[in-house]
Amino acid sequence: xxxxxxxxxxxxxxxxxxxxxxxxxxxxxxxxxxxxxxxxxxxxxxxxxxxxxxxxxxxxxxxxxxxxxxxxxxxxxxxxxxxxxxxxxxxxxxxxxxxxxxxxxxxxxxxxxxxxxxxxxxxxxxxxxxxxxxxxxxxxxxxxxxxxxxxxxxxxxxxxxxxxxxxxxxxxxxxxxxxxxxxxxxxxxxxxxxxxxxxxxxxxxxxxxxxxxxxxxxxxxxxxxxxxxxxxxxxxxxxxxxxxxxxxxxxxxxxxxxxxxxxxxxxxxxxxxxxxxxxxxxxxxxxxxxxxxxxxxxxxxxxxxxxxxxxxxxxxxxxxxxxxxxxxxxxxxxxxxxxxxxxxxxxxxxxxxxxxxxxxxxxxxxxxxxxxxxxxxxxxxxxxxxxxxxxxxxxxxxxxxxxxxxxxxxxxxxxxxxxxxxxxxxxxxxxxxxxxxxxxxxxxxxxxxxxxxxxxxxxxxxxxxxxxxxxxxxxx
Amino acid sequence: xxxxxxxxxxxxxxxxxxxxxxxxxxxxxxxxxxxxxxxxxxxxxxxxxxxxxxxxxxxxxxxxxxxxxxxxxxxxxxxxxxxxxxxxxxxxxxxxxxxxxxxxxxxxxxxxxxxxxxxxxxxxxxxxxxxxxxxxxxxxxxxxxxxxxxxxxxxxxxxxxxxxxxxxxxxxxxxxxxxxxxxxxxxxxxxxxxxxxxxxxxxxxxxxxxxxxxxxxxxxxxxxxxxxxxxxxxxxxxxxxxxxxxxxxxxxxxxxxxxxxxxxxxxxxxxxxxxxxxxxxxxxxxxxxxxxxxxxxxxxxxxxxxxxxxxxxxxxxxxxxxxxxxxxxxxxxxxxxxxxxxxxxxxxxxxxxxxxxxxxxxxxxxxxxxxxxxxxxxxxxxxxxxxxxxxxxxxxxxxxxxxxxxxxxxxxxxxxxxxxxxxxxxxxxxxxxxxxxxxxxxxxxxxxxxxxxxxxxxxxxxxxxxxxxxxxxxxxxxxxxxxxxxxxxxxxxxxxxxxxxxxxxxxxxxxxxxxxxxxxxxxxxxxxxxxxxxxxxxxxxxxxxxxxxxxxxxxxxxxxxxxxxxxxxxxxxxxxxxxxxxxxxxxxxxxxxxxxxxxxxxxxxxxxxxxxxxxxxxxxxxxxxxxxxxxxxxxxxxxxxxxxxxxxxxxxxxxxxxxxxxxxxxxxxxxxxxxxxxxxxxxxxxxxxxxxxxxxxxxxxxxxxxxxxxxxxxxxxxxxxxxxxxxxxxxxxxxxxxxxxxxxxxxxxxxxxxxxxxxxxxxxxxxxxxxxxxxxxxxxxxxxxxxxxxxxxxxxxxxxxxxxxxxxxxxxxxxxxxxxxxxxxxxxxxxxxxxxxxxxxxxxxxxxxxxxxxxxxxxxxxxxxxxxxxxxxxxxxxxxxxxxxxxxxxxxxxxxxxxxxxxxxxxxxxxxxxxxxxxxxxxxxxxxxxxxxxxxxxxxxxxxxxxxxxxxxxxxxxxxxxxxxxxxxxxxxxxxxxxxxxxxxxxxxxxxxxxxxxxxxxxxxx
Lengths: 476, 1006
Description:
- By secondary structure, chain A is mainly alpha-helical.
- Chain A is built from 16 helices and two strands.
- A two-stranded parallel sheet of chain A has the order 1-2.
- In chain A, helix 4 runs antiparallel to helix 14 (405-428), helix 5 packs antiparallel against helix 7 (208-241) and helix 9 (288-319) crosses helix 11 (337-349).
- The longest helix of chain A is centred in the middle third of the chain and has 34 residues, at 154-187.
- By secondary structure, chain B is α/β, with parallel strands linked by helices.
- Helix content of chain B is 23%, strand content 17%.
- Chain B contains 28 helices and 37 strands.
- Chain B has a seven-stranded mixed beta sheet with strand order 5-4-14-13-12-6-7, sandwiched between helices. Chain B has a six-stranded mixed beta barrel with strand order 18-22-19-21-20-23. Chain B has a four-stranded parallel beta sheet with strand order 10-9-8-11.
- In chain B, a hairpin with a 5-residue loop joins strand 30 and strand 31.
- Chain B is globular.
- The model of chain B is unreliable at 1-38, 493-509, 514-522, 707-745 and 992-1006 (pLDDT under 50).
- The chains are: A mainly alpha, B alpha/beta.
- At the A-B interface, helix 5 of A face strand 28 and helix 24 of B.
């Protein structure tokens, strides 16, 4: 038997046809499990929508917000989702620019996750304001009162940062999708899908010129998106850092938030990829190696975040500032000690388990760690926001915050909203980046095409790796 | 084309009674039935200019003090009550109860009209003539059949009402019984220039005597002069608001107060007194000496909550202490007391009373002790008439309800002190179908064939009767002038500035000794009754907010935190920390207090300002009936009391019961309907309420240039340009917003509104808080929202027991020795953290230095509130209700906010603009002191000074230059417009008034 050439990243993928087939497999009729998941997500969205309407009707008083803790669950969740939205662009744009070939199979999911996470995050500033029906006043719309928004307010920066990020990541996502949509258009047999894909593919024919323009566009967009990865969460962090609230007013916030965002984003990628891999049997695309790389990324960001935690405490102590010291002491020993310790344990300590390759490469263990990090990262934002506000300068106004069912419903509903979009994405848009995965596969040779038609999964080891140069670089 | 409304009031009818009022102002349609329909004036009322208020002079009747008031009305509706500055008692100030009287007027649970009740069968709404005829019939019937006597139960009336009541009982053959919940206490004392003030349980800052007057005098007395200041000693088992304002607290063994009083006067041996009272001999000797060397020592007492069964010894000891210096200044009040009402209850129970008519101001079913069993006795009276306008406990026992006018709707008069005759005049048409009790008495008499109940007076109405009576009360004075002034009184020194202060020291004179008369009073410690195992003496003391309970249905007062405990909407029993620890009781635990007469379950409030062998409960709450707001809140401690009466004053002996305490349950979760104490007890080193010792402030003031205390550096910033560093701007303030600025920052040289707050004068009474509610349409949020920290009081009074970080220190025995009150309101920062973070410019800076807040522009991101270090921005979590007809009180000059909008103190910008417009019309600049925000206006101790700090000659600029001046959290460089003046303590304050070691860097930055 002739040894065949395989990609070192996807040794189980036999060739282009399999990729196309697997991509189309995702787009076929949904099963019961899928419908149940989608139904649950939509139900959660409906509950959250009901809670939101209830809140609009009666006022924000139905939440647990208090006078000192004017921000809590909603802003926590906003920052959480913005953070989630970071890994996608990191993986798709930054790793693209760095030519990291292990991104090919996961970046589509990560990018979809980004888009939907930012879509989710974008709702929260509107949900959280007292008069959501006037939220558009934050936009610089011309009005007869000649009144512009206050460009000194970090909330305005937020509006621009998040909307820019959403625009760019949607564009980037869509541009990347075009060749794959064209592939789906060509192979789908469902009439309406064909129509939709035809429109979305924008007449993609796969000519040389098209490919040339497309790769150039993709490169530029990647270059454009890269600074956004750093800027968005920096701007979000300035929502806090620009204020004078003790515990917020810190210069470390921008890098700290970005690292935290990447940590949570990568954790979310893992949290999503593990079930997707298992349910859709995509083991051939998401291999041990991918999880290994993600695990290392997680360790790195977790270490940065851990360092930031330590530095925050050091600065609080070193500054000698009474209010700062009190707030940080209070995080560990005060009424919110459980949240403070959860944050440190979940984000800085538990991810260290990933130093062990066994845990990194064990999908179940890694999944568990990623979920813990996700929870920990939600707590991190909670700890930054709530205890700082509840315990700021004025001791007369130290009042604790208690979440109510409305906020819980909207928090859970945000997950419903996110997964609703994600599940719809899985069924309606190519989840696997056919074009890019093919880049790392050996190009099909006409004479071999027939041979492998019937043996999609030959025993491992019985192949030759396509030289990528990547492993050699890594070994060095 | 007169149109008759549902309840029979003529819409366009000019208010006849007001024709003789301030200037015959007219009004329309005050009935609440159909305010929605707008009917234009056919003949416009000359006096009413839409948008401009009409003011009426009157007298506050919420307590017996008799403060003069000005009633603000807009288009015929009362919106606010303020002190009458020309009147000697109020001096233009008012307490929280007085401020809240408008909520009594518009209380939604007032009776809508007369009712006849067949108990357990039905309630009938009837017309006034039917009700009066029935009452008259019953009286006639009783007189004919001899079925028992007719009793008119009233509080201690004065003036016209006293005459009418006596005439009436004579004319209809009834008997009059007088009941005052608190025996009459001396009003009109003069101690503003005292240098030693000792109070034996007299809570003169809250309820005793004349609180508004006394609070002002107290502040004058304690105001520091060069190197000296009056000293106040509080003697009592527990420290209420008056007590924690004292410089020294002496808690003798309960019942031995008179020994201490005698010892102070030098008529009892200090060693023996120390033995009897349990007070250290050295303390007594020092006090003895202080008393002897004082220029003007004044001794007050005994207080209503501390009246034992025999307070004669104490009373005479106090009189003796006052005798040498102040006899002329201390008029002895006529005793009224509760003896007669106790006798009446006996007669009622015996069935010899056929009919009782009870004035609405007293609520005996609530205020009388549990042992008296008033309600039970009432059942034995066949006809029970109540004049109460509220559904209180007594009114619920009535068979005939004849709701009387609120005092803001009624003509009346009142003489709180000899020769001080005050007039009460209606400021608007009655809200409901109520009737003046005087008119009711007159018409009942007339039905009974006694058209002229008084010799020489033929009165068709109480107003005529009053006019007639006033011929003798204000002889020779024009009636219009009397009405405009709010009464008639002799010109007294109190009208002007009390000659106090400088000159006190260095006057050589004889040492004072109390008169020998007191030695004749044999002393016997008062016995306390109660079971052997009952280990605590019970103190039931009147409430600053609710008095005897009569104002407990006003939402503003329910929401107002108690000045000492900072608990609102709830009752509590004060327990000493050590006692609590021994019994395993924690703050907020549910405890049962059991006396021989009853038991109440309430929440424990762990408080070092009470003797370890004593527990204290505040009166006022725990109403079984009193309208929707107060029902179900708190407990009524009167139930625990016996029916004994003080042999001296005749007042109820509230102090003399022993109780036992048992713990029923643990403190519930933070959000459960348990006890909620606002704020922290300690400043946690924040130093936002600072103090300085008398000695140090004298040293500082002696220096040529005021310096920062401690740092000994010259204050440059406080002195320069009115105390603020303006943001540079080179443009003309008229071209607003100036180019290059962000929607107008403070412009140099322009007006800068600012305030100085002297926390040395602040007694924590919170009258300003209620005034702010009234002026600025602040909604009441209710207990569960208060517990979430969502109250909207733009101005709050913070009360700190301690300065340091150690919370336990506030529970030590000296925890109440240096209590600091801090009025906290928007600081109108020059460099405001709230402004740049608002994305929509709802928070912005006005050219005259205010932090503006545009409600219409606000989208509710709440970032401003997060960034406000003072936490004085308040968010509308809901659209709060102003239940009809409470909504009629709303100030039309201030917007009512809806949900989702941030709000805060505006320095009463509506008043600033109004005054500025007035100045423009008169073509002159605004005068210093002309603009008076609501808090400044009402403060009984005149803590606040408001004005333009950019003018170096203004009062506020002068006050801000004090060497006691500091700004809250000034380390943040927010440059507040509010300058606080440190509290002056006799001894060294905690931390010496400075930041603790290691944190001193704050001082130099600000």
